[in-house]
Amino acid sequence: MPSFPSASWVLPCLLAVAIGLPGCREPRAAAPPPPVPGTTAFDPNGIGKLYMGRQIAQVMGHEGAEWLERPGREREEATAELVRLLRLRDTDVVADIGAGTGYLTFRLAPLVPHGRVKAVDIQPEMLDILKKQKRELAADNVDVVLGTEQSPGLPPGSITLAVLVDAYHEFAYPREMMTAVVAALRPGGRVALVEFKAEDPSVPIKAVHKMSIEQCRREMAAVGLRFREARPGLPWQHLLVFEKSAD
């Protein structure tokens, strides 16, 4: 994933930027790209690119790693409940796409003792953090994988579940990436898509970093995934499960 510019303002301002508080703005070395034809306005928190009617959001860079591990994250996102709602089998081979620091990866690994977790990220700096965490936690069933903007770098038919937490809306090439994710799924494999609720204005996240259920379903259908169910229970996010054909 593309990174934020390295600068001393990033960590103290990151949460404020994410939730839209005034007085904390990312300095820009150059003017932002122009609006995509057909948009009504350019969102400064987007990358200036449309996909199926929505603007693609900027990516959180490795400079924000500490925010991913913030103490309040469990309270805000109920990660323990998310893990429970995933209903993992002990033999699952799970890909954590956009794994970042491994906040979710290392919570999943103990639940698949006869399976594996593929921690996928495209930032080498995040992979360094993941490898360090893997060593410290002796998480032998975790594989750290360098992906690209268009592919998770996983072999065809190698995973049973792909989990994407607050990552999909930032993919610069969503169709290409999800086509590659679908190829990596075994027949009948699942995608668990976790995105901040666009339908809920009380969720304190900028609009470009949110997605509606309707939008998620439309975009997953475009790569051949069948909507299976929404699993309620998370305070700020949707958990939507999609399935690859078993044929």
Describe this structure in words.
The structure is a single chain. This protein has 247 residues and is of the alpha/beta class. It folds into two domains: 10-66, no CATH class; 68-243, 3-Layer(aba) Sandwich (Rossmann fold), CATH 3.40.50. Helices cover 26% and strands 24% of the residues. The protein has eight helices and ten strands. Strands 3, 4, 5, 6, 7, 8, 9 and 10 form an eight-stranded mixed sheet that branches. A two-stranded antiparallel ribbon has the order 1-2. The protein is globular.
Terminus-to-terminus distance: 32 Å
Number of domains: 2
Helix percent band:
25-40%
Anisotropy-based shape: globular
Report the sheet with the most strands, covering strand number, pairing sense and barrel closure: 8 strands, mixed
**pLDDT averaged residue by residue:** 86
Q: Indicate the CATH topology of the largest domain.
A: Rossmann fold
List low-confidence stretches.
1-19, 21-33, 35-40
Entry summary:
This protein has 247 residues and is of the alpha/beta class. It has helices at 10-19, 65-68, 73-77, 79-85, 105-108, 124-137, 174-184, 213-221; strands at residues 46-51, 54-57, 93-97, 116-121, 142-146, 159-165, 185-197, 210-211, 226-230, 237-243.
